[in-house]
Amino acid sequence: MVLHYSDDLLKTPDPNGGKFGDWIVKKDTFNVTCRLCKSNVCIKEGEKALAKHSSSAKHHKAKGAQAGTGNIFQAFAQQDAKQREYK
Ligand SMILES: [Zn+2]
User: Fold this and answer.
1) Structure confidence by residue, pLDDT tens digits, 15-24
2) How far is the CA of 83 from the centre of ligand 1 (A)?
3) Ligand 1 centroid – CA 66 distance (Å)
4) Which terminal residue of the chain has fewer beta carbons within 10 Å of its beta carbon, N or C?
5) Whole-prediction pTM value?
6) DSSP SS3 for 20
7) HEC string of 25-87?
8) Which domain of life is it from (predicted)?
C-alpha cells in the first residue's frame, strides 16, 4: 500500500501510547521528519513505517531523554503529595 502524507496520520495512535502527530512533521508528500530524533521517515509504507520508526532504538532514546525530564518533575510532585498526606 502506497500512502502519502495526510493530516489524518497526526491523529493515528502510535504504539507508544501517543499519537504520530506528537512527533511527526510533514516534510513532503512521502516523507516526514521526526521531531524527537530528527530522523527522516519515508511513509510510502504508510502507518507501518511510522510504527516501525517509533519502536526503533534511536527514537526511543530521544523520547526517553525527553520523558526522563518529565518523570523527574512528576516524581517530585508525587513525593510532595505523599508528604502532605502523612502530615
Ligand atoms: Zn524518531
Assistant:
1) 999 999 999 9
2) 37
3) 12
4) C
5) 0.71
6) helix
7) EEEECCEEEECCCCCEEECCCCHHHHHHHHCCHHHHHHHHHHHHHHHHHHHHHHHHHHHHHHC
8) Eukaryota
